[in-house]
Write a structure and sequence with these properties.
Elements lengths: L17 H8 L3 H10 L21 H8 L3 H10 L5 H4 L13 H8 L3 H10 L7 E4 L5 E4 L9 H14 L6 H18 L5
Antiparallel strand pairs: 1-2
């Protein structure tokens, strides 16, 4: 409980954000979080009056750094108020492949948060990029997510069940999803619920 000799009982747990304290002490945020939880201390909640912040005057990342919050927090506060991102105005969005590649890729290209790219794309009426993939069960499906591996919740559950039952990594997911589909087909053809 004392990484690097930290005496947690003498630290301002809950008085400052976990991230700030972790940086001061040179430990992970998880260590601070655990130390606070073990002692029953509530997290520090800094209330920010977002209506008094210069939302949209510049890139969200700059305001986030100034306030000591995540870029996502600033982006969400700005979007809830219907304020366009100041970073949007400084980018020539028409010259970018919006809707042709993932928003996350464009965000990296222009050094802006993903929510800024999504807002710019939506304001131009361009639908999100989607990719056709083939699930392990053989079905084709469209996904807008990098991690979309399965065509349905049923296939995703089959892979999860196999991982927990057989304690393997994701390397056998495709096999178990295909077996699950085969089982469903046999059951529907034979009308039996058991093998």
């Amino acid at each position: 409980m004392k990484p690097r000799g930290v005496d947690w009982d003498k630290q301002p747990l809950g008085e400052v954000p976990d991230r700030e304290l972790s940086e001061r002490l040179g430990v992970s945020v998880q260590s601070v979080h655990l130390a606070r939880k073990v002692r029953g201390v509530d997290p520090c909640v800094r209330t920010i009056d977002w209506d008094k912040q210069p939302l949209g005057d510049g890139p969200d990342a700059i305001l986030a750094e100034k306030l000591g919050v995540s870029v996502s927090a600033v982006c969400k506060a700005r979007l809830r108020r219907g304020i366009p991102d100041g970073g949007i105005r400084s980018v020539d969005w028409a010259s970018l492949p919006l809707g042709k590649v993932r928003d996350s890729e464009i965000a990296e290209m222009v050094d802006r948060p993903v929510c800024t790219v999504q807002q710019a794309r939506a304001s131009l009426g361009i639908p999100a990029y989607s990719e056709v993939r083939v699930c392990a069960c053989g079905e084709e499906f469209e996904t807008v997510y990098d991690h979309g591996r399965f065509c349905s919740e049923e296939c995703q559950k089959a892979a999860a069940r196999s991982r927990s039952k057989y304690r393997h990594g994701g390397d056998m997911d495709d096999v178990f999803v295909a077996l699950s589909k085969l089982r469903r087909e046999i059951v529907s053809k034979n009308g039996r619920t058991k093998w």
